[in-house]
Amino acid sequence: MYVCICHGITERQIHRAVEQGARTLSDVQMNLPVGGCCGRCEDCAREVIRDCQRAQAGSSNAVAA
């Protein structure tokens, strides 16, 4: 799914950034211009970041058990 239409940034690209260590929207914006134009996508981008972090936490909890 496209998160940032202005720059063509997808959910998958944000997931990749989080997997590589990004923790906040600012971290993601270091490599991707998400929210760099009109800013309407920032809330959605933050939600995608949180969802990816939750999925990572769930994966690490499953491995630990």
Helix content: 55-70%
CATH topology: Arc Repressor Mutant, subunit A
Poorly predicted residue ranges: none
From the alpha carbons, calculate the radius of gyration and give it in angstroms.
12 Å
What descriptors fit this protein?
mainly alpha, Arc Repressor Mutant, subunit A, 65 residues, 3 helices
Task: Write up what this structure looks like.
The chain has 65 residues and is mainly α. The chain has a single domain, classed as BFD-like [2Fe-2S]-binding domain (Arc Repressor Mutant, subunit A, Orthogonal Bundle). It has helices at residues 11-19, 25-29, 42-64, and strands spanning 2-4, 9-10. The mean pLDDT is 93.
SSE topology:
Layout: E1 2-4, E2 9-10, H1 11-19, H2 25-29, H3 42-64
Antiparallel strand pairs: 1-2
Helix pairs in contact: 1-3
Concise structural overview:
With 65 residues, the protein is mainly α. The protein is built from three helices and two strands, in the order ββααα.
